[in-house]
Design a protein that fits this description.
Chain lengths: 211, 335
């Protein structure tokens, strides 16, 4: 697979919505350590909302599918993560507006757009224990993979590894935003729950494009 | 968990159903939205509409502040969770009377991001939207970082002042100015004695020892400034007011409105004992009380505890505070 058509993207989102609810308990436990523990429920409800929205999105171009999937997620699972995730998908989708297919070369710009959308929406900067801390390293790795002429599957696999390393690095960060921000130094030592969810999604994507 | 509920996941929707059945002359749904309510006589043509919203579990915050002289519509989230931008948009569109909309709510990240999305969507529909956030909890960040502060019961004053200004027929910019003045002039601090339990979670939000209190705790159990042994209530009030008075700072000669709020499980008697001490401390500081509000203005399910809020008044704020307003959820509002 070199590019993702609308049908491919819908197949990926179907796989994602089947897999992610299985991580609910783990995400809830992580989140409960310094948030309010609702991330597991949010992911489960939001993924089901995407799943329910997919049949109506089959005729849309990939960018629109992403944006509408994000909106569907936050409609049913409104929350801090819901707003952030919806913003990320809407920003990434806008980046490929008008394109019938998504190639590896589109991904760095999409992830960068997602990161700046998230930053503008929530006011976070890098190093503050948010999903920016995995999105930005992912964008950088994708950039390097595109420059090196990698195939989509290899680029995605390398980006998943970079995401995992970036996730590990969130452990030493002190949360500054949302409920986590009120726990301050107590948040150190725990990996960011939202970034954990993003990393699990990236893992799913890497396996999907590897076929 | 010991609660008078059915399915915990139906908690919010069944609450809304009960409220609508109890007050059909006062509230109605915004179109087909399950989680957006508005004034039964709305939209009010030509008036700036005030739209609020936030998580459930705090009645009368948020839906109890919809009414004449207050807010026009509200979007309602799950317990302690932001409403969706779709419900916020539904409330915004339904309440819009052609004179613009003020989004007025508490400074919480989820609400802020979702209201931000709703405001962008409303603007695409050519509805002018402005935003003012309440940030009255002095324990949640130092005064230099006032824009990081959370909102607690003092949100009431922002609703009352902005609502009265809109009712006077002021334009959006003037209503925004009044809301900002009220938000800035309000300072609060609370104390928590016991936790609350979110129905769908089934377990208390935090733990606190039998003989302990936490000064400065937020209305979702956010960490406060100090945890210690519980002391006589006069000493608690002295500590809360010490922080609040120093924050503005309030000075001799100031005139204020006072709000002493129960978080839900603390009985009215205890709140009146607190008020007794508040009058003594303010009297000693040479601060005059223009008007007082005592009771449940922002609760946190069955949490025990209370908060004290002060609003520093000038002639304009006094007029707006004293103006008529009505909600079946509140004992006394204005003249």
């Amino acid at each position: 697979m070199d590019t993702l058509s609308s049908a491919d993207l819908i197949a990926f989102l179907t796989m994602l919505t089947e897999e992610m609810p299985g991580h609910s308990d783990r995400l809830r436990e992580l989140d409960a350590q310094f948030g309010d523990g609702d991330l597991g429920i949010t992911i489960a409800i939001g993924m089901k909302a995407i799943r329910d929205a997919l049949p109506e999105l089959e005729a849309e171009e990939p960018g629109v599918i992403l944006a509408k999937a994000g909106m569907a997620f936050n409609r049913e699972a409104a929350s801090t993560f819901g707003a952030i995730f919806a913003t990320a998908l809407m920003s990434a989708g806008k980046q490929v507006r008008g394109k019938p297919e998504i190639a590896l070369g589109d991904l760095p710009g999409m992830i960068e757009a997602a990161a700046s959308g998230v930053s503008a929406r929530g006011g976070a900067k890098p190093g503050e224990k948010t999903i920016l801390d995995v999105l930005l390293p992912m964008a950088a790795e994708l950039q390097a993979q595109v420059a090196g002429g990698a195939a989509l599957a290899d680029g995605a696999a390398a980006t998943h590894r970079a995401c995992g390393e970036a996730l590990e690095a969130t452990k030493s960060m002190e949360a500054k935003h949302g409920r986590g921000g009120w726990f301050k130094e107590k948040s150190i030592g725990i990996q960011d729950p939202g970034s954990t969810a993003i990393c699990l999604m990236m893992d799913c994507f890497a396996r999907f494009v590897a076929g | 968990m010991k609660k008078l509920i059915n399915d915990p996941f139906e908690f919010v929707d069944e609450t809304i159903e009960g409220v609508l059945l109890a007050h059909p002359e006062h509230l109605k749904r915004c179109g087909g939205s399950k989680r957006a309510l508005m004034r039964a006589d709305g939209p009010v043509e030509g008036k700036v509409a005030i739209v609020t919203g936030g998580g459930s579990g705090h009645i009368p915050v948020f839906l109890g502040y919809v009414g004449p002289g207050l807010c026009d519509a509200v979007s309602i989230g799950n317990v302690f969770s932001s409403p969706s931008p779709d419900d916020m948009l539904a409330a915004t569109k339904a309440a819009h009377g052609g004179a613009g909309v003020l989004h007025l709510y508490g400074n919480y990240s989820g609400d802020k991001m979702n209201f931000g999305m709703a405001a962008e969507m409303a603007e695409m529909d050519d509805i002018e939207v402005a935003t003012v956030l309440a940030t009255d909890d002095v324990s949640s960040a130092p005064v230099e970082e006032i824009d990081r502060r959370r909102a607690v019961a003092g949100l009431f004053f922002a609703y009352k002042i902005a609502g009265a200004r809109a009712e006077e027929g002021a334009g959006l910019a003037e209503v925004v100015e009044a809301a900002e003045q009220a938000a800035f002039a309000t300072r609060s601090m609370g104390v928590a004695l016991t936790p609350c339990t979110i129905p769908a979670a089934g377990a208390p939000t935090f733990e606190i020892g039998e003989g302990e209190m936490e000064i400065g705790m937020g209305i979702h159990g956010e960490a406060g400034v100090r945890r210690g042994e519980i002391v006589p209530v006069d000493d608690v009030v002295d500590e809360l007011l010490g922080h609040v008075l120093a924050d503005m700072p309030f000075k001799a000669g100031d005139e204020v409105a006072v709000l002493v709020n129960s978080l839900g499980a603390t009985p009215p008697e205890e709140v009146y004992i607190m008020y007794r001490r508040v009058t003594a401390v303010l009297g000693e500081a040479g601060i005059a009380i223009h008007r007082s509000f005592i009771g449940e203005y922002a609760t946190s399910l069955e949490m025990a505890g209370a908060s004290v809020s002060l609003l520093r008044l000038d002639a304009d704020l006094k007029r707006l505070l004293d103006a008529q307003a009505y909600s079946p959820f509140l004992p006394r509002l204005g003249a």
